[in-house]
Design brief:
single chain; 307 residues; alpha/beta; 9 strands
C-alpha cells in the first residue's frame, strides 16, 4: 500500500497484507485437501477439519480469557461477527428470560453495531445508548447506571476505530453481569495490537485484515454457555460451525489469517509497530485530543490552529 511517494497510515481501516500471509494462502492450494469440505467424513475432509481446528486453537490462544477452540467460528469479517453477536445474543438473552427486552450499546460503536438499532427496535427491543466522557471512555459506572433486570445484552467495543481510545472492558463486563446481562465486545481494533483481558467477556468479534491478514475472514468467539439464537439465514441454512453459524469457511483465507497469529512481526526499532507509532505519537502529542490509552495504530489529532 506504500511506495516511494505514498506512506500508508490508515491501519485502523485495514493493514497491508504481510508476505507470509499471502504465502500461506498460496501454499493452501498445494495441499491435497485444498477445497475439501471439512464436514465430510472422508480422509481429505478430516484433514481439512484438522487444519481448521488448528486455526481455531490459535485464535482462542491469542484471545485468552479461557476461551476454547470450540468457542470460535469463522465469519466473513468484523461486520458479520458483530451482526451475528448483537442480534443473536439479544434474542438469546430474551429467550432465556422474557423480561429482558433492552440492549445497551455505546455511542462510540462501529457502524456495524450502531446500524443494528432499527433492527433491534423491529424485534421489540429497547435500545439504550451509553455515552463516553470527554476523555472518550465509556465508564463502567455509566453502564451500571443503564442496566437492570430488563437488560438482555451490553455491547461495548474494546478500542475505538476513530479515536483509538481503549475501553475498560473487564469492568464494563462485570457491570453487565451484575445485572444478569450478556456482554459482547467488538475487539476488531484491539486484536493483535494490544494485550486484551477477555476473562469477563461472553463474546468477542475479530477480523484478520486489521493485522495484515486477508480481507474477508473474521471470527466470533462465544462461550458455549451463553444463550444464542441464530438469525436470518442461520435459522435454516446448513449449520456447520460450532453448531450456530451457517456454511463452511474458506480454507485459504482462514489459513492466511492463521499465519499472522503464528508469525507476529519481530521486535526491533524498524519493524516494531508500537515503537514507530509511539515515536510518531510523541512528536504529535500536543495535537492529541485526549490522554486516554490507545493501541499503537490509532489516535485522534487536532489540526486546528492554536488559540
Amino acid at each position: 500500500m506504500s511506495d516511494h511517494k505514498t506512506v500508508y497510515l490508515d491501519y485502523a481501516a485495514s493493514a497491508p497484507r504481510r508476505p507470509h500471509s499471502l504465502a500461506a494462502e498460496t501454499a493452501y492450494e498445494g495441499q491435497r485437501w485444498a477445497g475439501a469440505n471439512p464436514n465430510s467424513l472422508h480422509t481429505l475432509g478430516r484433514e481439512a477439519a484438522r487444519a481448521l481446528d488448528g486455526a481455531r486453537a490459535d485464535i482462542a490462544r491469542c484471545l485468552g480469557g479461557r476461551l476454547r477452540p470450540s468457542d470460535v467460528a469463522f465469519t466473513s469479517g468484523g461486520t458479520e461477527s458483530n451482526n451475528l453477536a448483537v442480534l443473536g445474543l439479544a434474542e438469546g438473552g430474551r429467550g432465556r428470560d422474557g423480561r429482558r427486552r433492552s440492549v445497551v450499546i455505546s455511542a462510540i460503536e462501529h457502524d456495524s453495531v450502531l446500524d443494528l438499532v432499527p433492527s433491534l427496535h423491529d424485534r421489540g427491543f429497547d435500545v439504550v445508548i451509553a455515552g463516553p466522557g470527554r476523555d472518550g471512555v465509556v465508564s463502567a459506572a455509566t453502564v451500571a447506571s443503564l442496566v437492570g433486570r430488563e437488560t438482555a445484552l451490553v455491547s461495548v467495543m474494546y478500542a475505538n476505530n476513530e479515536t483509538g481510545v481503549i475501553q475498560p472492558i473487564p469492568e464494563i463486563a462485570q457491570a453487565a453481569h451484575a445485572a444478569g446481562a450478556i456482554f459482547h465486545t467488538d475487539a476488531v481494533q484491539a486484536f493483535g495490537r494490544i494485550p486484551m483481558d477477555l476473562s469477563e467477556v461472553d463474546a468477542a468479534s475479530v477480523a484478520a485484515h486489521k493485522i495484515g491478514g486477508p480481507v474477508g475472514v473474521g471470527a466470533l468467539a462465544m462461550r458455549g454457555r451463553v444463550p444464542f439464537r441464530p438469525q436470518g439465514l442461520w435459522r435454516w441454512a446448513g449449520v456447520r460451525q460450532a453448531s450456530w453459524h451457517a456454511g463452511r469457511p474458506w480454507g485459504a483465507r482462514v489459513r492466511g489469517g492463521r499465519t499472522i497469529l503464528r508469525r507476529p512481526p519481530r521486535p526491533g526499532p524498524r519493524r516494531d509497530l508500537a515503537h514507530r507509532a509511539g515515536a510518531l505519537r510523541r512528536a504529535l502529542r500536543r495535537g492529541e485530543r485526549a490522554s486516554s490509552p490507545r493501541p499503537p495504530h490509532a489516535s485522534t489529532i487536532d489540526a486546528s490552529p492554536a488559540s
